[in-house]
Predict the structure.
Amino acid sequence: MARLTESQREHRGRWMYELGRARWASRTLLWVLPLLLVALVIGRPVALVLGLGAALCVLSPALAMVHARYARAVLVGIVAGLPAFVLPLLLRSLGIVRLGSATLDPCLPASFVSGILAGALVSARALDEEHRVTFWMVAVFVTALTGTLGCSVAGSAGVLGLMAGVATGAAPVVLRRGPGRS
């Protein structure tokens, strides 16, 4: 067996370190993959699940590998996106609600309400972080991807409702404390 030079040992050590970080970061997929499977089982369009799923499967471990703060933000974003994933789907079973001569699709208000919940949760959690702004941005981005799987039941209006709800839910928390370090 040949002896390794100092440079080769350093290279091998760095490679092992990076593989360990990649393995650690890939644990975010333990949250993402079951969510995508559930989305397929409940009948979300395959193209939507594949597109958003590919983005989540690539970005979640990549962000987690950059810093542990982003790994926490990814998990917070997934958890915050769950109401937006579930609530519109549950209300869709009610069908269109007739209010006299007008009709109301319950998914639109459900998307907005779930966005408010998601925005408040992400913002409240971001206040505990030293680098609030970057944590909040990553968590909101992951929330948007996760929530779009559910809010897209109402079409693009549902997704816009989700984003408006996130902004509405985040505003009081963000304005109350002001920005932290980024």
Remarks:
- The longest strand covers residues 97-99.
- Strands lie at 97-99, 102-104.
- The chain has a mean pLDDT of 83.
- The chain has one domain: 6-177.
